[in-house]
Amino acid sequence: MLPVTTDSQWQLVDKEKSKLKSTASEKVLTNFVPAKGTAPIPKNTESKKRKAENDVDIDITKKFPRSSTVSKPRGLLWDGDNYSCAYDALFTVLYYIWKDNKFMWNVNARHLQSQHLQTLGTGFLAASQGTKSLEEVRDAIRKTLYSEFPHIFPYGHEGTSLSELTQKIFSSDVKISKSQVTCTMCDFFNPPIDDETGSVYVMDKTASKSTFHTLNTSSQPVAELCPECQSKMISRIHYVHHPGILLFDHSVHTIKPSKNIKFAGTGNRLIKYKLQGLLYFGNFHFTSCIISPEGDVWYHDGMTMDSEAKSQGHTKFMSGEDYQKCYGRKLVMSIYVKS
Ligand SMILES: [Zn+2]
To answer: FRET partner for 315 with CA separation of 20 to 30 A, picked from 35, 40, 86, 224?
Structure first.
């Protein structure tokens, strides 16, 4: 199929990419850029537009101030009759994220048209108001999941797959990513098509170095050759809508979680994500770490602790490798929030 745009637009997209590289002090995800062939922003309006968008971001923060009561996070207590640690670990982090930024949570749940995220938001509100416990919120969602998939979400002394749980909680019929086949040698490209990649990004054997690096370098070879130059072609994925919460499943392949991830969005705009949660697995049990937007790290184990999370210090004293183990357990999930 013929490209739908001209060469000059191509170059504009490339110029935007290189400009981002040189102006940003930190690395930016250049792979997950807007599709080639989509309309670029005219160059002379870029700086104005960027300023205007920054102003909008500031306004949102002012209108929806972050709660000051989030300093001591609460975690869920383990159910020894019906093993609940997968739910406890994930919901402990999600409750903190909800509490810290309800506006983002609601916008994200609405955009994804996610029943589970909306139900969780309503439940978290009840928990924060004291009309329900976090464990009751957990048990209600668990009941729904069990009724739909009894073998995946069992009761009793059986483990639950955190990967399956996360996939179900964040599943959505709304497509937020596209994949695009491009030639590795010439300028040929196919139009982007809808992709299944959603809020959860699964790390497989091709993952390398860090969450950031993996996203930035991810591409799949495709069988067909370029119709114009007969060279190899690759397929790359990019988000057309950046979800409020982005999760990396490390259970198959452990990778260092980057503290920050930045995407090059449309119109030279930076889309930033901050690492805010880490989930661990070992000895048939899941635990969690919460990271506040200010960098305070908190640990919670619903089986051995009460509901209060324990301070672990600050991220400035930790390296990326420090996040990969926690009290002998291995990192299986990293959770990022769009800032
Ligand atoms: Zn080619």
So the answer is: 86
